[in-house]
Specification:
Number of domains: 1
Number of helices: 5
Oligomer: single chain
CATH architecture: 3-Layer(aba) Sandwich
CATH superfamily: HAD superfamily/HAD-like
Length: 125
């Protein structure tokens, strides 16, 4: 169903957090996938400062409102955020809102998770 977590990606997440960057995951998913991930990828959820799951918040990427919702949660200006994703349409949606997008050539964690990274000093939760 899902591949293995890429350890280098997790190391990057940890390094960002150690540098004071808040790392937030937003995943287009459903309850079945969420349950599977929690059972088979223990620790993945806690690797992020917060996670937003589409089946829980009722919004999906690339809808602009999901990006706006997360920006509002952290009281961030889009220019203070970097967004990572492997799908072109998601990166383009973030870019249209002024979020700095980085498109990866493979799914960052080999599962449908993308990250919003925000500087703790500039944004609050």
């Amino acid at each position: 169903m899902f591949g293995e977590v890429i350890e280098s990606t997790m190391n990057t997440v940890r390094s960002m957090q150690e540098a004071g960057v808040t790392v937030v995951a937003m995943s287009n998913t459903n309850a079945t996938h969420t349950e599977y991930l929690q059972e088979n990828y223990k620790g993945l959820s806690s690797a992020f400062d917060h996670r937003y799951l589409s089946n829980e918040i009722g919004m999906r990427k690339p809808e602009p409102r999901v990006f706006k919702f997360i920006l509002e949660q952290y009281k961030c200006d889009p220019s203070e955020v970097v967004y990572f994703d492997d799908l072109k349409q998601h990166v383009e949606a973030a870019s249209r809102l002024g979020i700095g997008p980085i498109r990866s050539s493979f799914p960052p964690l080999r599962i449908p998770i993308a990250s919003l990274a925000v500087s703790e000093s500039e944004c609050t939760h």
